[in-house]
Specification:
The protein is of the alpha+beta class and about 300 residues long. The chain has eleven helices and eight strands. The structure holds flavin mononucleotide and iron/sulfur cluster.
Amino acid sequence: MLERKINIQIDPKLCDGCGLCVKVCPSETISIINKTAQITGDESLTCGHCIAICPMDAISLKNSEFGKINFNTFTYENKWIKHGNFETSELVRLMLSRRSCRNFKDNNIDKDILEDLIKIGITAPSGSNCQDWTFIIIPTKKDVANFGEKIGEFFKRLNKLSKNIILRKGMTLFGNKKLEFYYENYYESVKETIELYEKEGIDKLFHRATAVIMVGGLKESSCPSEDALLATQNILLGAHSMGLGSCVIGFASNAIANDAKLKKDLGIDKKEAIYSVIALGYPNEKFRKLTVRKKIIPRYITF
Ligand SMILES: Cc1cc2nc3c(=O)[nH]c(=O)nc-3n(C[C@H](O)[C@H](O)[C@H](O)COP(=O)(O)O)c2cc1C
Ligand code: SF4
């Protein structure tokens, strides 16, 4: 059940009845009665559009868990940037400068910075403004290394299973091609990765990252994976702007999704799922040029 209770109040003494809040409200919560805005609806998304648009500061939050995001390591001006009033070329340069980092320095990231990254994450939009995302922080290099070993154990078991040809073919016969696909595409590289770690201590899973942020969500929320992945991209860009390198580790999310023991260790219950695992740390590399991408051909469809 989506929470849609009304978390705003309107001060009739300040309101001049301009009606801007009524026009901008997506949930028809407000009406103008006798030249004053009044709450007439019985639900609200608490998107805050009305608060942001009111020229008289007549609308405020009441007893609310919602509020301005305050960061530990920087401040920002609480002033809206008009559409078109930002240098797109600079935004794109930032996006193209973020590259997956697989080469980290040894120093840990301050807790204040890790928490700021999460707050940067939650500036993302979310389905029905649910904000039902969850975040787990693995805070130090040592913790990440220990976590990596747990994930390594999962892949050792998976490799052993997928090596079994009878099991693979049997599953395929019953329409489940997952194990065959894994064997064909990942078995060898995972085997090499495990051997490299065990023989030479080389970490090809988290790349010796010094922190991990996992972004999850409540499965019953309206769009949990979309919400988590939008927050993830914000975190990746925020990390770059704050001098950190990042890398999404799909192998880790895959392991968590399929290993009950890992879920238990991370305190993940049936209601929650992890949609991304982000390795973080201070980068030990400098690039000179920007990212390249495949060419895209959009499909135009007219009706
Ligand atoms: C869903 C997802 C899963 C990924 N999993 C891994 C991974 O397990 N290990 C890794 O080193 N990189 C991983 N990456 C990083 C991609 O390889 C990388 O984004 C891609 O090569 C493009 O490079 P760029 O991020 O530097 O632009 C993943 C990226 C995404 C989006
Ligand atoms: S935007 Fe503000 S001033 Fe205008 S009607 Fe709404 S509450 Fe009143």
